[in-house]
Design brief:
With about 170 residues, this protein is of the alpha+beta class. The protein is built from three helices and ten strands. About 15% of the residues lie in helices and about 20% in strands. The longest helix has 12 residues, at about 85-100.
């Protein structure tokens, strides 16, 4: 059948794309209105597009679908992996989320979801990686990492411990 409309076909809608409305990506043509993320449907441009085979995504959705997974990548706790989640891990995470917590505090729900078991000796609350300072073999919150006598903030060069409590070297 002849191509009466002229021009190339849009990779998304398969209609004719005329030069004035054409966007090219990976050798394929799109209408400006069809150049959208396959997951969230946001409009794309040359700075926000990420292509995977014949699919186009915004960089955020592409990272969620094909990027590394694990702690620190918005996917929850676990080892870094580019592999898809196995069915046994999916059912395990759903069962752990559906179990009621012993108390209704947000920190306990967060700890159940992301697996934190470290607790600060000063305030007894959970300590997560982003706020953890290790000293005297224990995890401390950055805000709790202070001298027990004078309250001065501590650093690795100014801290000393006695009987599990932290002190600045001046208060020792």
């Amino acid at each position: 059948m002849p191509n009466w409309g002229g021009g190339t076909k849009c990779a998304a809608c398969e209609k004719t794309v005329y030069h004035a409305e054409e966007i090219q990506c990976n050798g394929r043509s799109f209408h400006k209105t069809c150049f959208i993320c396959m997951a969230c449907r946001k409009g794309l441009d040359s700075t926000t597009v990420a292509a995977h085979e014949s699919e186009i995504y915004c960089k955020s959705c592409y990272g969620k679908k094909y990027g590394p997974k694990g702690y620190g990548y918005g996917q929850g706790a676990g080892a870094l992996s580019s592999d898809p989640v196995t069915p046994s891990l999916k059912t395990q995470s759903h069962t752990s989320q559906s179990q009621p917590s012993s108390t209704n505090s947000n920190s306990n729900k967060f700890a159940q979801k992301f697996g934190s078991t470290d607790h600060c000796p000063r305030c007894s609350k959970a300590v997560y990686a982003a706020e953890k300072v290790l000293s005297a073999g224990k995890p401390w919150h950055k805000t709790c990492f202070r001298c027990a006598k004078c309250g001065k903030g501590l650093e690795s060069t100014t801290v000393t411990d006695k009987d599990g409590e932290l002190y600045c070297k001046a208060q020792r």
